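To: structure subgroup
Subject: Chain for Friday's discussion

All,

I'm putting the inputs and outputs inline so they're searchable in the archive.
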Amino acid sequence: MLVDFRPHSRLRGTTPIDITTALVPVVEALSEDPGHDGRPVDLSKVRLVCDWVQYKENFRDVVELRPILHRPEHVPAGAPVIEQVGVRDDDLEVAVDVRRSAKLPLKEHTAALLRERAAGGPGGRVLLEDWGAGSRSCIWAFNARYWADLALWEKSTGRGYEQALPGGESDARNHDAARDLIRKLFAVWDPLADTGALPEELYVVELGVGNGSQAKVFLDEFRALDTEHGRGYYRRLHYLMCDYSQHVLDLARETVAEHLAHVSSFTLDATRPRTSLGFLRYKVFLVYISNVYDNLPTDEVAQLGGRTYQVQTRAYLSADAAADLAATTNTTPDALPALVHKLLRLGPALLAEAAPAHFADTDAAVAFWRAAWSAVRLEERYVPLAGLDLYELTPASSGDPAVSGEMLRPLLESGADVRMHVNNGALASFVDSLQLLHPFGKLICHDLFVTDVAAYRANFRGPGKYDGSVVNWVNGPLLAHVGRRHGFDVHYTPFAHRSGGNIVTMTAQVRD
């Protein structure tokens, strides 16, 4: 048995974790398990992984069983499978959230899960989807629905989405950060203006504008600093606010009302910005992004025992949660998956009209939406990848080739076993955005970046739930590696204008 206790820093301190209470009951359950057909679990092929899941709202049960498959998907029946030399063939990973484990009879709970596994089937769970890559899970349809119907969600909760962020606001609103950024822009523009090489129109693009507070801070400070600077840049400035949600854009336009002569707004998919902004290719001096990449669809991959796996997921509702939801909507647990997917497809307002037998009005449909989101969980399993060269991190688009999974190899083979995010949506957005940049332009992004692969071996990095949306940390080494392959220098620094937070600033610009 391989034991991986990741939150090792919590073994010391004023309130250290009692490692025995987190591990021993699970090991006892595994040791006493009668197994299927009387054959117990082979402990030599079990991984016991302990995490501290810091998100109070997340997709995990306290204990999870994750099967580890030995054969890649989509291999024709009877076709030979290449056996790697020197790999460890594990059968099962048992994952424990030690933040919550003390409140649960771990041995009994683990034993019940093992019995369900031996019996086969979902064990009373109501499945919302089949197994598949994490980026294709219905949790991202929930995420998209949140942004599409944000106004209804906020009305129901009585608070704006930004209040769900740590500290109740985005770091993007920091005035010192805005002034520092604008001064750096002026330092680039001045010598270009002196030589007649500065374009007449100065483009700045913000992806994910929120309520417009960042745009207002930037535009207010830009106007003030330009007045001092005396070069007339504000007159030439074009600020493009871009977001997935029209509701968000409408709020943002109200926030920047006094600057509207210099502002345009675009509804777009952040993973493909050039679809709407292709006319700005090589013209943008600043692409500004804050807390967007962590909210885009992602797969996960792992290197375990020398073999590379994709982490597949499927969303479900526990039997108890499904019974509660069914009781409040005048339906049965078996009918909930169809009702959930109808919600995700239509939205709560149309759902109330389409299913009046279940929802008296839009408010009732929103209540169902919120309850379903709170209850949804993810099962996971490991499926071998046939080859990294066959796995596309991002699809081909706009004449550009796909990003190959080979980009992951130096990260996956960097040492001990590791599981990491691919951040497919963030990577697609990043690669697409780089092609908007002027040769003297920059991409600046504030987000939850992992800056060292080793960090994935020490802490849980998502997914979690922020209000009605998904949040994951972003694989910084992967973005940097891909950026360098596209001719850009990429570096990470702690957010300079607030201490004690987790936000990191990524800067990308053309390599000298």
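Points worth raising on Friday:
DSSP finds 16 helices and 23 strands in the chain.
The two ends are 50 Å apart (CA to CA).

D.
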